## 1
Amino acid sequence: MRGGACGRNRLRTGDGVRIALLAHLRHPIAPPFAGGLEAYTWHLADGLTARGHEIVLFAAGDSDGRFTIDPVIPVHHEHRFPGLEHRGDAGLKAHVDAGYAAACDRIAAGGFDLLHNNSLSRLPLERRRTGAMPTLTSLHVPPYDALRWFVQDSLAPNHRITATSQAHARAWWPDGAPSAVSVLHNGVDPDAWPFREGGDGTAVWCGRIAAIKGTHLAIVAARRAGLALTLFGPIEETDYWDAQVAPLLGGAIRYGGHLSSAAFAAEIGRASVYLFTPCWDEPFGLVAVEAMACGLPVAGFNSGAAAEIVGEAGCLVPTGDAAALATAIGEALAIPRSVPRARVERLFTRDRWLDRCEALYAQLTTANAVS
């Protein structure tokens, strides 16, 4: 067996299992990633394949063809139903539900050892499904009414649940999470986010450009601090972009586009500080970890899991306070770049994340064999 804290429970390299990975369908599971959930699912498929597991990715049909894809729907639903993800649209709901129901049936009949559910659908959580198929559900969003009851009712011997942080788990279970729930921090490959000894004195921000990500507040803080700022990421909410972000661009504030991971790593590594501005209960904050791996200290809002993820590698202030964030930028710049890199190498590596996934898979498959 490979060594490590989870040694006796982990699957050995030669003990590959057949895993169905069920994805969210809003965007393709392909680079450049629309967000952290797409990156998470892609890297999970890639990492598990490299470790000798047989992976079938149940996702939108236009996802990355390097994987074995079983299409849940032919094309990601943002293409067919643009902007309707959070609008309660009946047509979108029927389209997605039909795809997931059929996919769950195929998974149940497909000879898989287990299902790793990364969707935001209630259907894989049904007890009749988790009772028939060992299932690991990874939660990626704060609790919301359309999913909360189904998650909390789904716990069963064949079903385990992960949250991306302690803060995330507390949001779902304020009175304490059940024993079948554990924290599974995301991880990055440090080699893919090269460390640089120094930066060029500028700030950088990355993410889905949407109101909950606070892009405009990063701009306001950077201007107050007198720093140049480059924004990266897909423009998800065009109304927000047009009204609150685009008018603030110009001079030392620019939009750098939506780049591939390699190109983004090169860009982010040149900067001196990362601005992290979630205006919701951020479950994890993968982009902050990517920036930290390059050596960037973080100045950001203390929302959701931010304190748990950033720790000694940054300076956090109350959410929404752009003036305090401007002050935090100066404090973050005083943190040696070795500090954020070391925190990532200690807590948030891809190998550590995959080790933990394999440990959970082993627990599920062992329990299923015994039952």
## 2
Amino acid sequence: MKEFEFGIYSLGERVPDANGNTPTAQSRVEDIIQMAKMADEAGLDIFGVGEHHRLDFVTSSYALILAAIARETKNIKLTSTLSVISTADPVRVYEDTATLDLISDGRTEIILGRGAFLESFSLFGVSLNDYDELFEEKLNLFFKLQEQEVVNYWHGEFRSPLKNAQISPRPIQKEIPIWIGVGGTPASAVRAGRLGVNMALGLLSGRPESVKHLTDLYWHFAKEAGHDLTKLRVSVTGHSYVSLTGEQAITEFVPHYNQYFSYFLKERGQHFHSTVEQLMPQRAPGQILAVGSAEELAEKILYQHELFGHSRFMGQLDMGGQPLSRVEKAIDLLANKVAPIVRKALSK
């Protein structure tokens, strides 16, 4: 049985605080690098950076940020969370990822997906009408690049053919670990299972039973396709925060939760506001939102493990402008309190 892994990630959003002050792009990038260093020093297993192409994010070139992190860290694995393969050139993505693997001495992974925002489609000149076809074709090409350092011939609909194409550099790892990011779409879970690649399940709120069908589909179709289930993994990712007590965690989390969602939902004409009282029940094991004390978060992860069979948890601790000093304390609790509880329970 694989040891359960713990990590954190950042999407690099620049959300104004309650006074309307927005962090600079430079300070936000620096905070992300510092978070990764803290996570590495605390002994967490993995750190991720998402991809977005908007002025209110700083992570359009996530591979460059991860490369900077690679030079500042020693042990922690590094991944995209996630790479929007639908609108990118898979050759370029693979080359960047392989280069990151060289820089990090073989600590690189990648999560491929379609993302929650659509700005990259118009930015890179691809049509939303081809949403599914783009993802399918480019995903399959990425797998081929992983397998072949010289692609003798490849032809697709959405980019020029490859003929005797040398794919360089090659990574340190024989194969870079690939995950497919899955939100709420059953077809994505089925695809990941059939392909026999790891699944990164993004969960935000509600009850975990409501999404159990996604992991059930994943494991079912992976088994049906003949893949070795012992070599496959599921991770759970989502909004997270941990403090000394559950009450303190919710109290410190709510203002930044509100800043984050009210900012992004406002552009869709929606209003968002949660109170401390409304979120307190979310500390229960049967709720997805990963906020609470170390003991509560551990209980929540163990509850979900029974449902999903997952072996990795990744939390977005810095959402909505959560101060770096609090993020550091949350990282310490995740690494030194939550992780030991979960691993001890699973070892039995």
## 3
Amino acid sequence: MSNILSFMRRKPETPVNPSVAALLDGFSIEVMPRTAQKIDDFRAILPPATRVYVAHIDGTPIEDMVATAARLVDEGFTAMPHFPARIIADRAMLADWITRYADAGVHQALLLAGGVEAPRGDFHCSMDLMETGLFDAAGFDRLHVGGHPEGNKDIDPDGSDAKLMDALRWKQAFSERTDARMAIATQFCFEAQPVIDWADRLQGEGIDLPIHIGVAGPAKLQTLIKFSLACGVGPSLRVLQRRAADLTKLVLPFTPDEILTDLAVHKAANPGFGIESVHLFPLGGITRTAEYTQMHGQPTAHTATA
């Protein structure tokens, strides 16, 4: 309790922009088991009930994943582990993972193809996982899927987004024919306009799944550029490249002020805008990212999306 109270007593050190605070309300964040071990108590840095994705990096034992998710649940958070399709061997392994998580009090999942080039078993993509029906059978009540506002050349090597759009149409149809509550959690971006254009295009295509837009938390510029290149961030990478060319800013930490402000202004003016929430990638460290949300959001109990 004392840790929760210590979080709630913290006051923003800078004036809060109400639109940005509203956009950050209900934010999610992610950890890996090895980074979670460095946090003594998540209640000291995150609002109660925050959704915390548990990233499953290839080679991480499922025991470590489940233990991290169970710890988060015990500390009062909503754990959402990754299920990377291409590293799951078969239906039996998938069922085992789902059961382990359910036994730990986890009932939400982020379904992804995964960061490996070729499938190692029966599953190629998140749709293969969804079609098994195993998540519904185990009582999982929320499934998130990946989104790529700037495209993904691994999926659409021709530079289009034809396959990505086909997959999102399929997922939209899945949400309509099942009871699954779904949202799109996206790759991180650095510029608002491509995100706005993409979200508007989805609505025009009849895809109305809520969007949880990926945003990189505060980090060194060199760190962000490294991760951006590794993750295939698209045209918005130019924001970092312009900053890198300015020697006066090269050594200063990068913060997501600009993209959050631009998205918040657009959402305030367009209430039907498809961005529902912000998902933060703590590339500069989860504590630093959590402190950023305390400065720019409202230091109260979380109202995470159900």
